Amino acid sequence: MARVAVIGGGISGLGTALMLGRRGHTVTLFEQDARDAGEDLDRDFFDWNRPRVPQAVQPHSFLAPVRTVLRAEAPDVYADLLARGAREYHDFDWFGEHPPQRAGDEELVTLRTRRIVLEAALTAAVRREPSVDVRRGCRVRALAFGEGRPVRVTGVQADGQTHRADLVVDAAGRRSPVPAWLVAAGCRPPVVHSHRAGIAYLCRWYRLRAEGPRDPGQVRNGSAAPFALAGVFPSDNDTFAVNIVLSTADPTRGALTDPAVFEAAARRFPACAAWLDLAHEPQSAVLAMAGLDNRWTSLADADGPVVTGLVNAGDSLIHTNPTLGHGVALGLRAAEYLAGHVDRIAADPADYHDWAAQALRPWFDAQVTADRVNEQRLAESAPLSDRRAAALAACAFDEPVVMRARARVRHLLQPADEAYGTEEVDRHVTAWLAARPDFAPTHDGPTREQWDALVPA
């Protein structure tokens, strides 16, 4: 059995510690924030100032791997998640009656919940795990190094002492100090691929009133204008978030932090208007997040691992802007792989780096590609021009075969070229277009003129 030190007590750190502990390994988890997610979800969500975790208050939809990993590794956590108010939504629920089931359809489930609910469920499980020692309010100041080529990490320095470990897991997030520590120690530098995302998020949280309806019926959760994206995130315990995405260069971005301006603008998008027409009460200010990037940090280069005794996971390894919701799903997949192969990884991390490059890196590349397209489109207010691509997106809401392909891509189960590139999908899209000879790509949100009349620069 291995001794493992985990740096960081976010979702990836908690998940890694829990899965390792349940396999009998001895784990010490170091988290510099003294507070953890407790029983008062609303207080922890709305009132906890977490500057190192700006995404904590932004809306989340947890994709299929989150559900799959938790049900396999920690079914009690999954049950607790549902008991705390998280809701399952199958992509075929859009149709009311599901089509005949095919292999893999059971995976196409989104968990609708705020991030804090998952944090609370994982925290409670980790507290119950005797093999895991959680050191809250304890900041790791440095790594301990031994001999070897490449050099070996032998533990961490915290609380004025050295804590020895067979393996250290860096789950300290997107601002992890670990890469700088490695360079300062004379290791070859980690390989970092970074892409700045020129988009900004603004969201506001609401709660449905007890006397009103719980949803607006069959309404898509996303809308778009040439220069903005907008959507609704139904969540746990009758909460929902309205979200608007703009270019960071948009001159109206600052005005949207005014709740009245934000809500008036959101109502120009059909998806948002349908939910804002329900009986609701605002629960937050307008919450902004920008300065986003996509970053891949590999602790291996062309010559192999730059260090042994240390690997990274979660946002320390791969973080992407939240548009496609990859973060938690990829973080828990890495945690599961680490827990299942920790003895081998502790001896030689090359296998872990190879696995990450094959299993996780393609989704990073897909996010960067999507972001570049969105950045250009939002900045230039570009009209939709690809008729077949627009038809592919629209057709999914009429044709279960196309919805299945869409869902498999969205849930990180299959790359887009494989899911959409079948004769069956092509046949359904062709037939859908043939039945709609006047179909033309269009946006359902406001025009720029309408927006500028409503939202001051």
Structure write-up:
This protein has 457 residues and is of the alpha+beta class. The chain is 36% helix and 23% strand. The protein contains 17 helices and 22 strands. The protein has helices spanning 11-21, 41-46, 64-73, 75-83, 115-128, 178-184, 259-266, 270-276, 327-340, 342-347, 350-359, 361-380, 387-395, 400-410, 416-420, 423-434, 448-454, and strands spanning 3-7, 26-31, 61-62, 87-90, 109-112, 132-136, 140-145, 153-158, 161-164, 167-170, 191-197, 199-208, 222-225, 228-234, 239-247, 280-282, 287-289, 292-298, 300-301, 304-305, 310-312, 318-319. Strands 12, 13, 14, 15, 16 and 17 form a 6-stranded antiparallel sheet that branches. A hairpin with a 2-residue loop joins strand 13 (222-225) and strand 14 (228-234). Helix 1 runs parallel beside helix 9, helix 3 packs across helix 4 and helix 3 (64-73) runs parallel beside helix 9. The radius of gyration is 23 Å and the shape is globular. The chain starts with a strand and ends with a helix. The mean pLDDT is 95.
